[in-house]
Amino acid sequence: MSSQAKSARRIEKIAIANRGEVAVRIIHACQELGIRTVLLHSEADQGSRAWRLADERVCIGPAPTAESYLRIDRNIEGAIAAGAQAIHPGFGFLSENADFAAACEKAGLIFIGPRAETIRALGDKISAKKLIEKANVPTVPGYMGEDQRTARLIVEAERIGFPVIVKAAAGGGGRGMKVIRSRAEAGELIASAQREAQSAFGSSTVFLEKYLDHAKHIEFQIFGDFTGRCVHLFERECSVQRRHQKIVEEALSPSLTPELREKMAKAAVALAETAGYSGAGTVEFLVQDGEFYFLEMNTRLQVEHPVTEMVLGVDLVKAQILNAAKEFRLWKQEELVPRGHAIECRVYAEDPYNRGLPSTGRLIGMHWPEGPGRRFEVGFEAGDEITPFYDPMIAKIIVWDEDRPRAIRKMLRVLDETIIFGVRTNIPYLKAILSHPEFVSGTMTTQFIQTYFPEGLEPRELSDFEKTFAAKALPLVRHGQAVDSGAAPSSGVKDPWREGWRFV
Amino acid sequence: MKKLVLDIDGRLVEGTAAYDKGTLWVHLNGQTYTVDIAQRRTTRGSKAGSAAAHFGEIGAPMPGKVIKINGQVGDEVAENQVLVVMEAMKMEYTLKAPIKSRITEILCEPGQQVALGQILMKLDKA
C-alpha cells in the first residue's frame, strides 16, 4: 500500500494544528530536531507567540474554533499548501478526532498520533469501555447507550443512583462534564452537557456513570511504538480539579503502593497493546479505597505531560515525532526509572477573588523566574491578547526537586516570583492549594477543590505598606504611558488608595 | 513593567509596577494587586461582574456568548432559577435569579456575543 512509501518518507516539515503553549512546545521540539514548522492558526492568533516562533504560517479561518481549529478540511489544505509531510494535533481541538486522522492519511499526511481506527476504538469512551471490560479492567457502573433522549438519560441516572456524572462521549479534559446530584436538576444539566459537547467536540453524545465521591484521579502515561511494543512511563496524580478541569498535577502520585502501581501499570499497558497503540497515550483511572476503575483513555499528548518528562528524563513530543517518522527506538521498561518529584501548575486567566470567572485583556508585562528544576511552558508574551474565544490557560509552570516537600516549596517560591500584569490570574489560588494541609499530606481527592475552595478565595485588605508602595510607584511608571482620555488626575477624584484597589 | 526600589519609611523595598489604561499594576512580596487610577465607576472583575449591581438587572459576568435563555417576559421565576446560560472560553456559566421575581425585559438572544457587564435581562419583584 502507498502508506508504506509515504511513512518511510523523511519528515522535514510539520504542520501544527493547534495554538498557545502546546504549539510553542511542539515548535521547540521540531527546532531541536531540525524540522521546519508551519502553524495553522485562526485570525485571532495572528501575531501570537507561536505565530512568531513558527517558520511559516497559514491562516485557516476566523476566531471561533468551529470555523478554524475544528475544521478538518482547512487544516489539511493548509498543511498541504505549506508542503508539510506531517501534522501534529497537540491536545484538544482535533487531537482525538478519528476523522481528522483518517483525512490526514487519505491526503498523504502523517498524523502524529495513533492510527485512525485506534482513536475510533479508544477515543470514543463508549467503545473504549467495552474494550476494557473485555480486558477485565474494572470500570465504574454507568450508562453508555445510544438512546440519547433526555428522558431516557434521566431514567438511567436514577438507576445508577445519584450522584451521577454526565460526560461527552467524544471529549477529553473537563469539557461537557457535569455532576448530577438529584433528579430535579438532571434535565437541565444533561442538556447543558450535550450543548457543551456539541460546541467543544462537534458531537452531542453523552454518557453517564456513578460519581465516586472520594476518589483520586491517577493516570498512566503509556507509549507504543510503530512495531506494536508498548511501555508505561509511570503515573501522574491529577486529583486537584475544579469542575473536572485539572489545575495541579504531579508525578509520581504520593499515594500509590508499589503493588497497586504495578497492577494499574499492567492494566494500562494491556489495554494499549490490545488496541495496537502507537504513540503517546494516557490511561486514566479513579482510585478509591484501594480499588481502581478505568475512567478513559486519551489518545494524544496530555497537558500535564511535562511532569512525566521531568521525573523520567524523556521528551515525549520528540518521541511522538520520531515514532511517526519510524526513526524511534522505544525505551525498555527497565530503562524507565523515575527520580525525584515534579509538580505542574496551570496558570489561568481568571479572577480568583470572583469565583474564577475568566479574565480577558492584553498582557502588559510578564516575568518567569528561571532557576534549576524550573520549567515554563508559555503561550503568550507581553503585548499578546487573552481572548474569550479559547481556553484561558496562559502558561504551565513545572518544577522538579528531589522529593515532594521540596518540590512544593519550590513551586510556592516560583509562584511568588512570577509576575503577570494585564489580566487577573489564578496564582493566589494555586498558592492556597499548594499550602493546604490536605495537599501537603498528599491525601487530596477529586473533591478537594469543592470541599475547601468552592468559591475561590476571599478578598483581603490591602495593607498601608502596599498602598504606600503603589502611591510612590505610580509617578515612576505612569510617565510615557498611554492614559485613557477619560482618566481624571488622581488628585481630583476620590482617593484611589482607599477604594480603587484589588488583589489579582 | 518596571522593577522599582523604593524608600518606604526608611526601608528600601523592591517591587515591580506597570501602568496601563488607568490601572496601576503592582507586584510586591509575592502578591499582585491593581489600583484603578481613573476611578471609573465600574472596575473590572467582581464589581461589574456581580449580576445584581442593581437589583433586577442580570448582567454578563464576563464577555462571552449567550447560549440559552430560560423564560419569557412576564414569567415568574423562583430564587436560584437559571435564567441565562452563557459560554466563555468553552465553559458554560449559568446566571440565576437572585430572588423570586418576574421577567420584565429580555435584552439578549441565544448566539449573541455580549460584553462584560452588559445587561441581559431585567426583573421585577414578583
C-alpha Rg of chain A (nearest Å) = 23 Å
* Sheet/helix structural class of chain B: mainly beta
Main beta sheet of chain B, described? Answer: 4 strands, antiparallel
CATH architecture identity of the largest domain in chain B: Beta Barrel
Low-confidence stretches of chain B: 40-53
Word description of this protein:
The complex is a heterodimer of chains A (504) and B (126). In chain A, 36% of the residues lie in helices and 24% in strands. Chain A has 18 helices and 24 strands. In chain A, helix 5 links the parallel strand 4 (86-88) and strand 5. Chain B is 3% helix and 54% strand. Chain B has one helix and twelve strands. In chain B, the strands form three sheets. A four-stranded antiparallel β-sheet of chain B has the order 1-2-3-4, with no helix packed on it. Chain B has a four-stranded antiparallel β-sheet with strand order 5-12-10-7, with no helix packed on it. A four-stranded antiparallel β-sheet of chain B has the order 9-8-6-11, with no helix packed on it. Chain B starts with a strand and ends with a strand. Chains A and B meet through helix 9, strand 17, strand 19, helix 13 and strand 23 of A and strand 1, strand 2, strand 3, strand 4 and strand 6 of B.
Keywords:
heterodimer; A: alpha+beta; Rossmann fold; D-amino Acid Aminotransferase, Chain A, domain 1; eight-stranded antiparallel sheet; five-stranded parallel sheet; 36% helix; 24% strand; B: 126 residues; mainly beta; OB fold (Dihydrolipoamide Acetyltransferase, E2P); 2 domains; 1 helix; 54% strand
